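URGENT: need a sanity check before tomorrow's submission.

F., can you look over the Cytochrome P450 record below? I want to be sure the sequence and structure line up before it goes out.
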Amino acid sequence: MIWLWLTLFVGVAYAAYKFTRPSRLPPGPKGLPLLGNALDIPLNGLFLKLDEWKATNGEVYALSAAGQKILVLTSAKAAADVLDRISGSCSDRPSFIMMGDIMTGRLMVSGVSHGDKWRRMRRVIHEGFNIRAAEAYYQMQEEEAGRLCRVLLEQPYVQPGVALQRAAASIIWRALYDAPSLFQSHEVEERVNHMNEILDALLSAAMPLAYMVDLIPVMKYIPTSMAKWKAYGERFFKDTDDFFEGLYQAGRLGKGEGGKARGFAATTEEACKQFGVSPQEAAWTAGTLFGAGAETTVGAVHFFCLAMLLYPEAMKAAQKQIDEVCGSHPPTFKDRERLPYVQALLKETMRWRPSVPASIPHVANEEFTYKEWVIPKGTMVIGNVWSMNRDPAFFPDFDKFRPERFLDEKGQVRAPIPDYHDDILAYGHGRRICPGRDFANNTIYVEIAYLLWAFDIEKAKDANGVDITPSDMEFADKGLTVHPKEFPCVFKPRQENLSELLPPI
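Structure tokens as predicted:
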């Protein structure tokens, strides 16, 4: 018991010190003594609360959660100023003691602190998934998009989330481990399900207030025998470490078509040696990539399906272009440059409803100045992508789904807007921008292009024959990522012989 009381005393003293330290952060919502805004920060829908606070506190404001200072950026320009132009000062990650130290042993690359280990792991990811390396997966991604369409052809009246999740998981799984398609192997499906359970646990652990140790760091010194949460975290790490290393070794040694392994685990083996990445670090890098790749892409394609129900005119415009370019054959990556409307539709989907709406927080790794404010080292920096994508300075009609905003007067994809950083903010900013974004964009492109070519996505009807119109503001919040709340819809084939044109399962 003395351990518990001592830990609480030291924790409260530490929080009081941090809370009362002088600061020149911008003002923000008023909080409580010591706790600050901790009780106002929601476990779900954080991005909506941050956007709500923007209305009363401006585009840049500060929060405090039990002494932890938080800088919130809600405009595209402010995010570009801080997270891009002075990214060297805020490229660290929150400690997330439960998730980062205990559950993952500081091996999950998205949470690794800015430093040598992070740079080594990131260089390996770049080797495996840069814009040129990603081309090696084109054929596989087209195959899996076709299999997704076949599943929907056989079950056209569905809630699409499950099928979309399987397709996204199958693509990144095959890319990482050169394994069979999730649609073809029960063993792969079991392993992917376990991977998803791991991901869900980590996303939940990364949410504010999920574990008190993240508010009172000294609690991590409580003996494991006296803290069930700590025993759970340590057991989780051991089990996950064994699982990831088993997958990585199988992918490294396995052989694909022609007797040559082609997945990330095999093709980056030399890069790991070159950059000094250990087998354990490589295994966790691959495991992290699975979570990042599966979650962001399935969310984007799920929101795409929702947009097609609510904005059928955008679907018809995209289908018209696909029919003109592709005719009866399904879209491929060779057709992408001749499908600018589809590219614009992808960008608009990820602007309209980003699947990582509050982004992954940064942390200031040194003190820096922005405008009249001084941001202390250790301050958490949140770029609220939801607010940026609804910035009226760039998108006065931000609530509307309008792909044309990303096209020029000739109907071609226009250049990125100055001060907007990029067309797709969901991949992050600065030195922490997602290194696998080209591969992810390829997955989203080929899936939505295939779906548009194969189906009219229509509203389902209720028992009385009335159209069911889903809400565009109901979300399934998974922590750092969100999907639309599941909705029914109908995938109506656009060609009578569609089954003959799709690859077999």
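My own read: Residues 75 and 391 are 6 Å apart (CA to CA). The first helix runs from residue 2 to 20. If you see anything odd, call me.
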